[in-house]
Write a structure and sequence with these properties.
Layout (H helix, E strand, L loop, with lengths): L1 E5 L7 E5 L21 E6 L14 H14 L5 E6 L1 H10 L5 E7 L5 H13 L6 H8 L3 H10 L1 H4 L5 H9 L5 H7 L3 H13 L6 E7 L6 H10 L3 E5 L6 H4 L1 H12 L9
Parallel strand pairs: 2-3, 2-4, 4-5, 5-6, 6-7
Antiparallel strand pairs: 1-3
Helix pairs in contact: 1-2, 2-9, 4-5, 5-7
Length: 268
């Protein structure tokens, strides 16, 4: 596991960014680099992704706890956890172990059994379900077949104007099929654990939920999950599940609205 860092303004908080999947690398979220105008950034790569070593003995809870330990060893003035999709579940579990936590940002995260049921229904209704590319990944899971499988669901992940670029992003991602294969089943069982962890946070820790309006997780489910953890709820229009890829400026401005102490070079 590792952090890839970008420096921001002096004395700014650090945002620790956790990618989804499970099994996708931090490169899928690098459209958030523009947040370095307001924050220090630390992109987290879980085990097996982006050149890191995979340890089959670690559970997702172990990964979350190690993330918290790494953050606590940092010298940041304040820590903000930002998780996308499955990465939001990991970020939530880590949250109540982080010493200098000032906020949690969740981007289109399934945080309840109902949300996972909605996602499953979306996948089942996709023409990709049961297709050759899906069968190929199921029979022979490798980084290549996983990339092809995830990219095939592009219409569920990226808005129409960005779909081809989004699929290219997935097809070049240094993801980990081992991490995905071995931990996907854990996610739905950990969603409520993550929500409980967030609810235990101090009252002064800001909780921000940013939802897409075109992806496979309905806005209504996201709003319900956000309400369950007492989060501020914002929707980014014309975005799909990878909302920070579809609408990076809008996502960045929402994060800055609630957390930035200083912002440099923001377009007017």
């Amino acid at each position: 596991m590792k952090f890839t860092r970008l420096s921001g303004p002096t004395n700014a908080p650090t945002i620790y960014i956790v990618p989804g999947g499970p099994g996708l690398s931090s490169l899928t979220l690098r459209s958030l680099d523009l947040l370095s105008r307001s924050f220090h950034l630390a992109y987290f790569d879980c085990q097996g992704t982006n050149g890191t070593e995979y340890d089959p003995n670690l559970s997702l809870t172990d990964v979350a706890h190690r993330l918290a330990d790494l953050i606590n060893r940092d010298e940041s003035s304040a820590a903000i956890l930002l998780g996308h999709s499955a990465g939001g579940i990991i970020a939530g579990i880590a949250a109540d172990r982080v010493n200098k936590l000032s906020g949690v940002v969740l981007l289109s995260v399934p945080l309840s059994r109902a949300s996972f049921d909605a996602i499953l229904n979306s996948y089942k209704s996709s023409p990709v379900a049961g297709s050759e590319v899906e069968v190929s990944y199921t029979k022979d899971p490798t980084e290549l077949t996983m990339r092809n499988w995830v990219a095939a669901y592009g219409e569920m992940y990226f808005s129409a104007p960005n779909m081809l670029r989004g699929q290219a992003l997935i097809n070049s991602d240094p993801m980990s099929f081992k991490y995905a294969r071995n931990h996907r089943a854990e996610l739905s069982n950990l969603a409520e654990t993550s929500a409980d962890s967030i609810l235990r946070l101090r009252g002064d820790v800001t909780r921000l939920w940013i939802a897409d309006d075109q992806g496979f997780l309905p806005v209504s489910e996201q709003r319900r999950d956000a309400d369950s953890i007492k989060a501020i709820f914002e929707v980014v229009s014309e975005s799909s599940h990878f909302l920070s890829f579809d609408q990076p400026e809008r996502v960045a401005r929402l994060v800055e609205k609630y957390f930035a102490t200083q912002t440099l070079g923001v377009p007017k």
